[in-house]
Every structure is written in structure tokens, then in C-alpha cells.
Amino acid sequence: MNGRKYFLIIILLLPQVISAQYYFFGRNKVQYDKFNWKVLKTEHFNIYYYDDFEQLAEIGAKYAEDAYEEFKVKFNHYIGTKIPLIFYNTHLHFQQTNITPGFIPEGVGGFFEFMKGRVVIPYLGNLAGFKHVIRHELVHVFMTGKIYGVLADHRIDTGRMPPLWFTEGLAEYWSFDWDTQSEMVMRDLVLNGLFVRLNDLDAVYGYVIYKEGQKFLEFVSKTYGEEKILLFMENFWRFNTFKEDLEFTLGENFQMIDNKWYYSLQQKYFPLYENNYPHFVKSQKLTNRGFNFDPVVYERNGEKEIYFVGNYTGYTSVYRMKYNPDDVDYEKPEMIIEGERDEEMEAFHLLENSLDASKDGRLAFITKSQATDVIHIYSIEEEEITQTLRFDDLITIRSPKFSSDGKFLVFSAGDRKGYSDLYLYDFSSQELKRITNDYYEDKDPVLNSGNSKIIFASDRTAGVYQQKYNLFEYDLTTKVISYLTYVDANISTPSFSPDNKELYFTSDYNGTFNIWKMSLNGNSADTLKQLTNFVTSVYGFSFVDDHTLVTSGFENFSFQFYKLDLNNSDADSAKILVSNFMKSRSRWDAKRIVLSSQSDRLVYENEYTLDYAVGQFITDPVYGSRGGAIFSLSDLLGDDRYLFYLYNTAEVQSEVLKNFNVAITRLSLKERANYGYGIFNYSGRRYDIRESDEFFYERVFGGFFELYYPFSTFQRIEAGVTVANSDKELAGELVTRKSLLVSNSLSFVHDNAIWAYTGPIDGSRFRVLLGYTSDVKFSNVNYYSFIVDYRKYFRLGMRSTAALRAAFFVNHGKEARRYFAGGSWDLRGWQRWSIRGEKLWLSSLELRFPLIDQFYVNFPFFGLNFMNIRGAAYLDAGSAWDTNYKETLGSVGFGIRFNLFNAIALRYDIGKKIEKNFSQFQPKLFYQFFFGWDF
Amino acid sequence: MGFLKLLIKNIFAALLMYACSQPLVLKNMSAGENGYLMYGKNPGRTFYENISITEYLQPLWEAETHGSQNFSSVILFGNYLFVSDLSGRIYVFDKTNGKQVGYEKYSGSISIAPVIYKLRIFFIVNDYDEKFSTIYQFDFITGKILGEDKINGGVNNEMLLLEDGIIVVTDFGEVIKYNFACMREWSVNTKTTSLSSPASDGKIILFGNQKGEVTGVSKDDGAILFKEKVSGAIEGGVTVDGGTLFFCDIKGKLYSFDLSTRKTNWVLDTGYKIISTPVFDNQKIFTGNLSGNIYCVEKSSGKKIWQTKTDGVINTTPLLTNSFLVQPDYNKKVYMINQSNGEIVKTYEYERRTKLTPVYLEGALYLGSDRGIVHAYKTFNQN
To answer: Are B110 and B155 in contact (CB under 8 A)?
Structure first.
């Protein structure tokens, strides 16, 4: 019987597959843009790109082919088939990809999809980063192929891989050199006691494992030999754990390896304190929580205030706080623009330079708004957004900066070619002027006081320091770009001093970004002077007065604001750098693969391959043999999908034709409006979980069409129509109920919730559905449906929330279907699906809070580490009925939740059921274990 | 606990062997049969056959093993072909028709070719989930293991069959001499990782290591005679031609090294890592790198004669004949290269990677492709 229930659930779900990416709620992955895909065929790659990205795709092709030649030697491995390499010209377009069904956060620079071997990469504005990501992902391709080959050669299960810290660490180690950001993170980890030892790295995720893994492999290479890295992979077949593989390959005890590695890092980083210092030593901390970026100081009503982009709750917003460094208590920031809850401000770019203030009291800040970034102008005095600047051809926007008179706004932006260039917006004429137009990345522009020149940082540096970010000057009159600095370092965030005589900026010359300055006058204009020597980076700064800065500093894996008094800095004993323009060149050119043959440069046409195929065959003495299969095809870009379902439930040979089940569905996700349609024929004996003890034979065939139109990430409308001919024979009855059912539904869905470990903790979600089902031929069935389900999450702290649910379900009319409730997901304590009726209401109030962050159980043979166990106290109420209201039921209690592998939440509840119209507790406690996310 | 684990493991292994193996028993064999008894044919590892074949290969048969092979070769003895695989099996096939005669299975992997001495076969198993390997002496007339010995670490360097024993160089750099009763005569630890198959001029065991040192060990008592830093890390095998040693390093350089003066005669830089063993005839020496380039060099001077670029990865030691260099490519190909001018005269393509060094014996050529396919071809004499 269980098998039959399962079967019924499968067929009921099938027409709903189109909503797999949405389900009942869920945010939307919106295909705002229609891409005209093309294919570039090189020796080892099929490179997919679109629209105007051809030049950068050809450069990317060169990077990929060069990397292929290098990695086939490093891995002693060859990839025998062409690797699909899919380029998106910006991260915003990359976020629209259907190659992975999940949402892609801003920090993801690309991915390798194992199932079909696809490599998907966005262009992030600079060629060095592009090359890095291509190489990083190709390391994954080669490593996966290598390890699969090693295991398959030895006839060992191929379904395992080394730990993530090794795979990501290797991808970093073999794809690029140790850079400033890596150095900053490693300094912070080692010097601030955050370093994760080798034994614990398996349990850690995120950027830490990339950098620690990379650093560990560098250590292995130096200490034991570079060849050991390949041997880790070649010996992978030999042991059950990677730890044993490490020990065997390096010929040393695991603990000893770990100790030696940590010691080498201590040796390297501890001496830094001789000349470098933490932020809190030389500057005064102004904030102590959240992530704080882009501080700008503005004086309002005689008081100085800091405006900034911050994240305190999971949503990034614009905040302000009083500048009050004399107060020993930290100021509490006030949110002035709430972000990431509606389509106007779908996302902020937290780690990017994205906010500025004019002297006349306007803020300019960047958000993603639907398909592109926009610039919002906010009046500090009026406390409202007065203008939103949207430019059709500009997809990403960064680094807005007002001119000193407030008449202009200069910024950098990415276009459809992938170029990241400078733009100047004139507020009076409302005209946008493009300043640069090439594949060099130009960023962080500032206008001089006379609005005649733009100073900016760029990787257009040519000569011996090629692709370093130096400062350049663009003359708006002559349109000539010239070097302002020429040093072997990266420079960013230039800013004029209040008297306009000096230029301040950050530079990574000493390993992390610190504050430097240069004079703009006379003979010393080529001399750069270091002002700070923080051990970790300064991410941005703003002048409070002529000798005081507010900085955003990285320390203890957080970004906080500090007050920095330049009079107390190390300026007198600091490093001096002199630009050596003799070593410079005017430009550099990126090599690319240019294919002359048109047969190697094609318009993309759907290339379908199998996604998965599952077959099943059951035989038992009662029901005989049954079997079937489900398989799915999709095109290379994941935009077009077909699902096929075949099953037969015949119990005897004569019923084979009568019990044939087949469904074919096509889904199109290519454009903003997603749609799906299909046909189905289901027949067999059924048990309806909605009606007690109702067995029947049914044959139903027909077709359906569904349409999903997202208005934004947060809201969509869904419409569906199903036509189904149903012949139903109830067990024990002679009469067959025939019907030709036509069902229509229309829904509006909203979801801007953010999630913690076991369920949502902030935001809101709701669905309103109207539906109508009727038998247009025999009038045996005729009912309407109405559903409203609303959930709201009231944040009580960083990690606790009060969740509220109110839902009402109605089916009304002839042969209306019943809803059901009971169980861990709604009326807790009551038997699952035991409360049934054509009308149903539910309400829940739940307090969610952290209970145990971590505990470790050390059994004799192995250790179990349990993390993020959450607690809940709840009160449920609800009822279901057909015609006359029965009684209000409920439950109250508490429970614990535990996230298992980020795949499922385990829930255990204890409580008391409430009955008789909520007037009486049942005498006994109930205990309920189930799995699933919190509502 | 350890004893219990060992006991259970041994019982399980014994049951598995009994249940899975097709007994490897060969009848009617004599110790004087002709054959190709070790990887590289002889202690000098020449990989050279003094014959002239055409580029045409006529398939004779294909046989299949359970696991794949490493960068190794088959061994031939009498009417039989012996081949090990990475799933811990050692197979015997009838070399005339490819029919499987029998196999033995062990828990682990056999990544190098066995050696045959008289009616006994010696092979080394890299034991699964253990940090040691085991050398076995197997009598294929009785189908019994006559001797075995545990070796610390892995063994991926090919064994060397000498007239009075067998030399094993472990991955950890330990050199062990076994007599033909599988008993250690001597061992010496060079204390440097070695991924270089040894060769011998009959007196000295020669091999490279990860420090780029060429090491010479006396075959009689295991004394380390010399250890000369010559190159970058050496991950390919070495080959001996009289008083000259040839080898390559991971920087892609081919070295000619004088054993008497212990000085480098000449160096040729190919630019990319080399892990195969160079092969030579009277005048020329040949090598290929992982970037897919194949070189022919004048043996006496190091002067490049020709260079051929392939689109694959050359990581397998080729077979050299007077007419063709038979070169497997990891990119599922075997090239028949005119050894006088470097022209790829014919390319044979395979379904999967080709890794076994081709072996020629009595008019037939034997090579292998993944996963575990052994191919036999009839060759044709150019004359």
C-alpha cells in the first residue's frame, strides 16, 4: 500500500514541476534579459557567449586554451571531450542563469557544474579576475576528471571527492598567485586567533577554506615538494579517509603536519607586529557589529553624521549614525533606507564602493533594480529619494562620486560588451557622457575641484607593472589619459583632501591596503607617502576634517568603522615611494583567439542532453510486477527542459494496456515569462488520502498549461489551466463517475524572507489563489477554490524571531476536494492529515531562538559535531469542516530543530494538544519527530 | 582491537580470494621459455627492438582485465601474457588468442609490471587502506604463493630483474634487493622520495629522485656509491647505454650523464614535464613530454634531429624499432612515427586512454587502453 501512496503523490506532483524553482513560496530567478547566444569552437572548448561580448569571449578563449595546456601537464591528465565554457558579461546576467536552479549570491565568481561538466563564468569587469576564475574552474574540471579516473582505474566507487578545503584550495593555488585579499584574510586568521587547524577544516565553509587550503598546499609544495600535490590525487584510491592519504603521501603523522604548517604561518605572521598594528591600536573603533562600508561624513544641524551601507540583519540597507568618537559607548546606527525587500532595491553591492554624499546634502547610492543597477539620489534634509537614475545600456554601476559643487556625478559602469568604464552625469542637462571605452577596468573616479579632470584607478598600467592598478588622470578638455602614479602596487579609492592640495588613497604596497597620500603640487607630485601601516586592510575612508578620517577596516573577520587621527599616524617615519614613469608604456594588449572559420563561430541552437534517468521495477507476490522510468532532458543552457514519465501498474498481464501511465512535460525558462505544458494519461487503482477509506480505479487523461510571470525577485503571478477527462470507479460501487474536468487557477505570490538554519527569520511571504474546477461535460464536479496563506517574521534579535502564520483554505461546490491538516507542519501533535474538510483555517505563532551553537560527541570510534541547534516555542490553532463548523483545535509546546547538511531540518516537538474549541488540554504530552523546514 | 581488525580482514580477504579468483595455474611450462620478462626488456631499460616493421597493425585479439593498467607494460613468457591491473589483479592470457587462463586477486592495486624468473612470477601489491605494500613470489605451476614480504610505503617504480635477484625501489626511496626466494638480501634507505624506475648496467642500480639526484647503488651489497645532484626532480625512469645514463626531469630536460666522470654530457630542454623513460638505438634517443611534444636527439651530442607536436599528453614510454617509434598518447591514440624524420605516418585511435608501453615479441605487438583492454596486433616486416 505504501508503494501506491507514493505513486499517487508522484503523479499529483508531476504537473507542478514547472514550479519546482518556486514551489509554494520562494523568490524568483528572473530572466530579465533575452540573450542571443553564440558558440565559439576552439581546440578544447565550446565557448558560449552572447550579444556584444565577442571580444572578451575571444580573450577568455585564449586564457582557457593556455590553462588547458598548463593543466594537462600539471595533472598529467587529458580531458577527452570539449569543455562547455559559458560566459556571462556581468554578474547580474550570471545570476539569471538556468544552468543551476539555485540562486547565485554576489560573492560567487563562477562555478563548475559536475553533472554535464559545464563551466559558467561571469565577467566581473577586469581581465585579471576573468583569467583567475577561468583557471580556477578549469582546475576543478581537471581535478574532477583526474580523481574520477584514478578511482575508476582502481574499480573503486567514483562517488567521492577530497574535502572541500582541498578542492577549493587547489583551485586557488594552481590558478593564481597569492594576492592582497588572500594575505589580508590569512593575517587576520593567524594574528587574531581565528585560524582553523587542519583537523577542523572539513567542518568549515566559505572563503576561509579557499585561503587556508591554498596556503596549506603552498606549505606542502615548499616543505615536501610540489609533486606531493598530484600524489594526493593519485593515492586517493588507497585510503578511506583523506587524512590517511595526507599522512601516507607526506610520510608524516597528521598532527605533525598540522603543527608544522601552523608553526610556519606563525613564523611568517607574528613578526609583522614589529612594524604593523591592528586597527584598534592606532585608531578608535566607532562600531562593533554588523558589516559597515562606504562611510561618508555629512554635517546636519551642526552635528556630524556618518552615512554608510551596512548589513545588520541579513538585509543590506543605508544607515546613518552620529559621529561621536568621545562617547565610550558605540553609537547605534539608524536605518534610513531599507534595502533588499522590494524590486526598487533588490540588492546592494555590499563589498563594492557604492555610496557618496554631496556637500549640499544628497546621497548617491547604488542598488540593483530589476535588470540593472540604478543610482538613487536621496535628500538628507527631506529624508526621501528624490531621483533614480537608470541607464539602459549600463548594467552594473559602481563608485558614484559627486563633484565638489554637486553639479556632476562621476561613476564607473559595466556595459553589454563587459567593459568597465567611466561615465559623467550632468544633473543640470540630465546628460550622460561616456569617458572611457576599452577593456581596461577604470574605477573609483573623482573630479577635481574645477571639474576639469577625473582622477581614477585603473589596470591600464602598461610596462613592467602591467595590470597593476595605478592612478590616472583624464583631462576633460583634451580627452587625454595620463599616469598620475606608476608604482608596483595596486591603488584604489582616491579622495581629495579638504583643501584639495593632496590626494589620499589606499594602496597594497606593503601587503594589505593602507592609506597613502601624494601632493598635487610641483616637484613632489611623483612621491607617494604611506600614512598608516595596519596589519589588515582599510576598505574605504572619508574625511571628517583636515586631519581626521573615518575608515572602514577589516579585522576579526568583520568590517567596522574607526576614527583615524592623521596627526597620530606614522606619517613621519613612513615609507616613501616614487613613481618611475620611465618604466611605463602607453597600453597593453590582451591576446585572444580569433577564429576565421565561420564554422567555428555559430549561433547557438539548443543542444539537449540527458539530465537524469531513474528506472524502477517492482515485483511482489500480491501485486505482481510493475515498473517504469522518469527521465529528463535539457539544453546546454538549462533554458528548455523536457520531462518524461512512464509507468505501468498492471498486476496481471491482461491489464497492461489499461494501466499505462505516461506524461510528457515541456518547460521553458528562457524568458521572463516561464511556461510549461504537457499531456498525461494516468490510470490504475488509487487510494485518496483526502477521503478516508476511499479506494477507486481511475483513468484520467488530458493536458495542462502553466504560466509564471515574475514582477521582480520577490513577487510573481501564476496562472494554470488543466483539462482532464476522468473516469472513476469507486470500489464496491457499480456506477462509474465520468467527468471532463477543466481547472483554472490564478495566484499571486510574494516572498522576501531571509532564512536562517532551519527556516525564515525575517521578511514576509504570502500566496493568494483563486481557482475554479468544473466538469464541462457531465456536471459531476463543480467547485471553486480560494487560498490565502500569509507568513510574517518579526525579528527579535540577530538570531531570534517571532513567526506568525495565518491561512485560510476553501473549496466549495459539488465534489469539492478536501484539504487536510495535522502533523509537524501545521497542527502539531494531531495525527498527520487527520483533520480534513473542504474549508480549513490555520494559525501559528512560533518563537524561534538559538539553543545550542555547538556540541561535540566523542564516541569511541569517531566524533560527531552538532552545530546550530535551534529552539522553538509555539502555539497552533485551526480547524477543518465541510458544511458546519466543527471545533477549534490547537496545540502548544516547544521543540528543537537541527539542520542536517544544509539539506534538511530535523524537528522534534513536545507539547499538549488543545481541544473542545480551545478550552481544554488533552491530559498527555505528545512527542513528535519529523523533518522539514520551519514555516 | 588491532588484532581483531587484522583477523577479520584476513578472513575476509581469504574468502574473497577463494570466491573470486580463477586459479592461476599453468601446466606444461619449462623454465627456459622465451619471453619479455621485465618492464623495458632488459636491466638497461632500452625499450628497443632491432627490427623494422611497417605502420600497419592487424588486430589479433582483445582481452579485458577488471581494472585499468598504470604506465607499465605486459610481460610475456612462453605462450602466455601476464598483466597486472589497478584493482589488485594479476592476469594470465594465452598470447595466441587472448583467452583468459587465470587470475589472482589481492586487496589493493598492482601498478607495475610483474617480473618472471623461471617458473615464478614476482609482483607487488599496494595494499588497500594500509601504508605498506607486499611483494609476492608466486609459483604458477602449483598456483601457490611461495614467499611474501611487506614493504614500507607504496611501490610505483618498476622492478628490476637481475641475474641474481630482483631490485625494488620504493616511493620513499628505499632500495631493496630480493633473492629469488623472495628474501631480502639487503636494503638501503636513500631517504629521498623516488618516483623513478631504476635501471642497471649489471653492476650498479641507477635511479633518480625528487631532489634531482642520480643515485648509484651497488647491486652486490647495497652501498650507496654516489648521489649526484644533476637536474630538477626526476619522475621518469632512467635508461643505461654502456657508461651513459639517460633520463628526464620534470622541467622537461633530457640529460645524458656520464657514469664514470659523473658529469652531464649534454642537456636538451623540451620545456615541459617529462615522466616517461627515454628510449634509444645506436645513434638516436627519443623522448616525449606532457605537453605532447616528441623529440629525437643525436645520442652523442644532444643535437635535436626532429620534433613532432601532438595534441595529447605523452606520458607513456614508447617502443622503438628500426623503422617506427610506436608512441602511445594519453589522448586515446597510438602513433606510428617514422623514427628517421618524425612524421606521424599512422595514428590508431582508441575508445579510451592508452597507457601501456607497447611490447613486441615474435611478430606481435601488445599494448593496452583503458579500462583494462589489452590489444594484440600482428606486425609486418618491412622487408
So the answer is: no
B172 touches chain A (CB under 8 A): yes
| pLDDT, tens digit, 9 for 90 and up, residues A890-922 | 999 999 998 887 778 899 999 999 999 999 999
Residue A90 contacts residue A16 (beta carbons within 8 Å): no
pLDDT at A107: 85
Q: What spatial distance separates the first Cα and last Cα of chain A, rounded to whole Å?
A: 30
The three cell numbers locating residue B341: 624524420
Query: Which burial class, exposed, middle or buried, applies to A880 when counting CB atoms under 10 A from its CB (0-12, 13-18, 19+)?
Result: buried
Task: Give B371→chain A minimum CA distance, Å.
Answer: 7
| Domain A29-159 homologous superfamily, CATH | Collagenase ColT, N-terminal domain (3.40.30.160)
d(CA A710, CA A717) in angstroms, rounded, equals 6
Q: Are A502 and A525 in contact (CB under 8 A)?
A: no
Q: A671-931 — its CATH code?
A: 2.40.160.50
User: pLDDT digit string (tens) for A254-265?
Assistant: 999 999 999 999
Residue range B290-334, pLDDT digits in tens: 999 999 999 999 999 999 999 999 999 999 999 999 999 999 999
User: What rounded mean pLDDT belongs to chain A?
Assistant: 90
Residue in this structure with the C-alpha cell 550622460, named with its chain if needed: A432
Domain of residue B32, residue span: 2-381
pLDDT(B18) > 60: no
Q: Are B131 and A73 a contacting pair at CB < 8 A?
A: no
Instruction: List the one residue out of A889, A864, A869, A863 whose CA is nearest residue A878.
Output: A889
Is A247's CB within 8 Å of B131's CB?
yes
Cβ A725 vs Cβ A700: under 8 Å: yes
Q: Do A227 and B331 touch (CB under 8 A)?
A: no
* Whole-structure pTM value: 0.91
The 10s digit of each residue's pLDDT in A341-372 is 999 999 999 988 899 999 999 999 999 999 99
Cβ atoms of residues A549 and A493 within 8 Å = no
Q: ipTM above 0.95?
A: no
Architecture of domain A162-274 in CATH? Orthogonal Bundle (1.10)
CATH topology of domain A279-574: Neuraminidase (2.120.10)
Identify the residue whose cell numbers are 569571449: A57
Query: Rounded distance, CA A784 to CA A814, Å?
Result: 9
Q: Which whole number is the average pLDDT over B51-70?
A: 96
Q: Which of B210, B291, B313 sits opposite A227 (nearest CB)?
A: B210
Sign, CA dihedral B86-B91-B93-B98, equals negative
- Residue spans of the domains in chain A: they are 29-159, 162-274, 279-574, 606-670, 671-931
Q: What mean pLDDT is predicted for residues A839-844?
A: 96
Quickly count: other Cβ atoms within 10 Å of residue A331's Cβ: 18
End-to-end CA distance of chain B: give it in Å, rounded: 67
The domain spanning residue B16 has which CATH number? 2.130.10.10
CA–CA separation, B238 and B197 (whole Å): 7
Counted domains in chain B: 1
Q: Does B272 touch chain A (CB under 8 A)?
A: yes
Q: Which three cell numbers stand for residue B355?
A: 597507457
